[in-house]
Amino acid sequence: MRIDILSAVPAVIREVFNHSIIGRARRKGLAEIYVHDLHDFGLGKYRQIDDYMYGGGAGMVLRPEPLDAWIRKLKSERDYDEIIFMTPDAPVLTQPTVNELSLKKNLMIIAGHYKGIDERIRQMHVTREISIGDYVLSGGELPAAVLVDAVVRLLPGALNDETSALTDSFQNGLLSPPVYTRPAEFKGMKVPSVLLSGNHAAIEKWREEQSRKKTARIRPDLLKNPDSDK
Ligand code: ADE
Fold first, then answer.
1. Domain regions of the chain by residue span
2. What is the pTM of this model?
């Protein structure tokens, strides 16, 4: 998979992709990730990329020309399955969307900044808009990093344990059960005995029950979701 990210402040996220599971996936050749600087196609001597809002209002808007130039350049080099704009005024990201995107070959992600991007870019180029939650961040870089992380970790070979992505919270519409490691007793608190029993059927049943209880307590909305098979 190849992912191209367009950003006004690429330094904010370049480093994120060099480490841990995403860094390893890149080194293994599973994912190519490029973060491009909008200033490369900025206007004039100062490589301007933003401007005041027509009609008045606080905050700057990303001008269409640098975005359009980057998008056209990249599109001339390969076909993109999706051109995604990270923005709070969009459907909120869920695991089914992440799963779907992990099957694509080439993704482009626009990390907006300031008050947003010129609407004409959304109409002309963007194929999908994604929010990472009902709150506003100062830019789309961290949301883009969230999306890339969620997608790349699903690529075959990215995780050491192939099954672990399937047991993540949300993959079955439920939250993950509690997990424990050694020691079996820590400051007087014991690991539930079933986990030490070696009885795999009993362990599976306990995990399922714990998942259900935790979801009912913390995220009852997930149990009402008609898309869930639970
Ligand atoms: N840009 C700013 N806030 C955002 C959010 N919540 N999701 C996606 N992009 C954003």
1. 2-152, 169-223
2. 0.93
